Protein 1
Amino acid sequence: MSINGLSTQKWTQESQPANLEEILSDGSVKCHLSPRNCVIKEGRVGFCKVRANRNGRLVTLNYGKGVHNTQETIETEAVFHFSPGEKILSLGNIGCMLNCGYCHNWKTSQAKYVTDKDVYYYTPEQVIESALRHGIKVLSWTYNDPVVWHEFILDTAKLAKEAGLINLYKSAFFITEEAIDELLPVIDIFSISLKSSSSEYYRKVTTGWIEPVLEGIKKVYHAGKHVEISTLMVTDISDNEDSARTISKWILDELDPSVPLHFVRFHPDYKMANSTRTPIDRLHKAKTIAQEMGLKHVYLGNINDDEATNSYCYQCSSLLVTRYGLNAENVGLDKTGHCLKCGHYNNFITLQKTHSKKPINPKHLNISDYEKKEFHWHGDIVSIHAQVANTTNISNIIFFRRIMENKMHGEWEHISLVPKESYRFIIAKSKPQELGTEFLLPPGISSNLHEVFDRAHFPTEAIEDIGISMNDTTPKIGYKGKQNMYPQLIKMVNNDEN
Ligand code: SF4
């Protein structure tokens, strides 16, 4: 079957039955997963290009197919009030029910750009086994967008719950109520990207519409789930005071003032690479507005060394959690998430702490034949994904540590790999005086590094293949199509104001 020119891609060939189908009398099927409700003719695909009509039935093309699973921290997902600093296993797939002009995961969210080299195959059991073996308690359904991975998420999240794991759903949440009903029994945390408060912005920038997103947020919040909301502040388009005000008002009116809100810094990408990063003072202004209106927990995202990412007690102002980039440290919460100083509850959920791994010093091993590798932070590139594969038939250990000024390097940390295992994990700058990361890799371990541009970004290209980016605000391999969207959108905003 030809799928918009993708017939040569192996990943499109196999399919699985899909939920939420309506069979129509003319042989078409209607998909009830996202509010688009695509009516799909025999042999064709829906807007997302990962759901199709095969023999008159709705099928999913991406079941168990996604990008490489990646160990990150929960802060990567704009979740600040659930077990700060917690390790997560991030799981991203292929396709999306939206097509946002600035998408930093466009290479995987827009299925026509996905090639077989980007796709990894997992069973639900493999996902759970990997999380448990690496001491991870939270699965995060993320990156492109989990909505279009519905059936695989339901199957895996159910198994995860049975294994005692938590499920986090990070999404733009352009989804139907019927689909949310299927998610509610298995998802514990919803981190939702509310992209704007403007209907016109939704139509023009995301290709979706705002109403189902707002209804969806209300539904999961009133179902008692842990909810955090983030808003990308796009330079000169949505980073204005009005945007901060209307989003804050909606949260106050429809949810409650203790729902955490994150104003997130934008970087140029995809069809809007001809733009600039959000000025930081506009983010601070948005935070001040939201707090003055009564929101209790307001944060800035995609900035590193800034107190606006810390958590303070709403009652006594004590410092509760310090954050630097994607790292967090609990300094003032008790085991039940209350302020250690005054006992106030600031809407934090905490998980029981796992004992940290006993350190191993590689200097005590015979490391003369180990490969050494380094990466140095530069500009806005302050985190990387390291992907390592154990090509041998024996278990192996890889080491890494933080390179600091004056050679005051961090402790060696390690990750154990079973035979033939491929593993990917993030390392994010954790202190101003940190210069980069150093790796020690035993024989038989292949490795590559990927520069990460802001949180929840899944880079597909390795620096070993494309080199280090010189421009540190947008990825080196960019979108080749037209870049005319950004000026048009600025014009749209200005016309609205006139
Ligand atoms: S998930 Fe949404 S975009 Fe994809 S086929 Fe279904 S209705 Fe269409």
Protein 2
Amino acid sequence: MFSSKNPTPKGISLLLALVTSILIELIALLLKGNILSALIAGGVGLIITFFLSQFLIEEFVNRKIKLIYKFIHQTKASKREEFYQNKLLPKQNLDEVGEEVLQWADQRKAEMELLERNEAFRKEFLQNLSHEFKTPAFAIQGYLETLIAGASENPEVRTKFLNNAFKNTERLINLISDLDEITRLESGKQELHVQQFVIQDLILDVFETLSLKTQMKNVQCLIKKGCEQPVVVNADKEKIRQVIINLVDNAIKYGNQDGKVEASIYKTDGATALIEISDDGIGIGEEHLPRIFERFYRTDYGRSRNIGGTGLGLAICKHIIEAHGQIIHVRSTPGVGTTFGFTLPCS
Ligand SMILES: Nc1ncnc2c1ncn2[C@@H]1O[C@H](COP(=O)(O)OP(=O)(O)OP(=O)(O)O)[C@@H](O)[C@H]1O
Ligand SMILES: [Mg+2]
């Protein structure tokens, strides 16, 4: 009953009662010299000390436990709850309390880690954001300053600088509309307007929209042979249009001059279609693949050459596809090409 490592109120009370009763017996024996009355006095002392000390210890421990619970649960119990906790709930032993406190500490630790991660994410996001805004804003300022300082006298320089300022303004506007889109998607406020449509028609529409870009690089955009059979999907057409625009735009941007962009459509089972956009371009290194869907993430190529955008396109795609409860993935080999694939429900 009594263990020195893990003492219980009962064990401590018994030990205390035994010691007290022996002392009482000795004193009674010394005073009266009668063994029987010494034994009776010792026995009565043992019972009284045992129950009294057990009651006092438990009362003390329960008061301390109550304090710990008040701290852990952070809620104020109503009178009824307090009555239930004090009188009706089976009293927990210290081991159970210890376990619950450890669980609580683990929970708090996980919450703290999440907060720290979010904080780091927020800082990185703001840093990226200010960097992305600074570059075109300073460029515009530079061109306008030079024009004001007299460069506007020269018609050739004036046209060039105004064009450059215009291009940077366009970049700023693209950045703002991408940011607007991503914040709306992340806030979860955007509703999906699901409708049925043939995915091949939408892909051909996007190829048409981007035809100026494809012509400039002499890129051939086509639907893979054998994938022409119309597949009807159930999704938000305008949002999926944006996904396909972003993927085909990337395939052209990071694809080769005179290259090929191919769209394939497969029905994986009766209810899901897999849509893939492939290019034969520069590809993406393995080290970048896990982060490619993060906001502002770009490979060195996307950064160093002036072809990369802001790195929000794929993050937007991921949000849209996940809002449909579907998945998006990437396969890529540097020098061979890249394939982005996403699924959609189909009928
Ligand atoms: N098809 C691809 N081939 C090679 N690299 C790619 C391809 N698609 C994306 N990437 C890499 O992934 C990065 C992120 O792409 P994402 O579309 O998010 O941004 P972006 O194209 O740079 O800018 P934007 O916000 O204008 O789309 C790109 O900068 C590029 O480095
Ligand atoms: Mg892009």
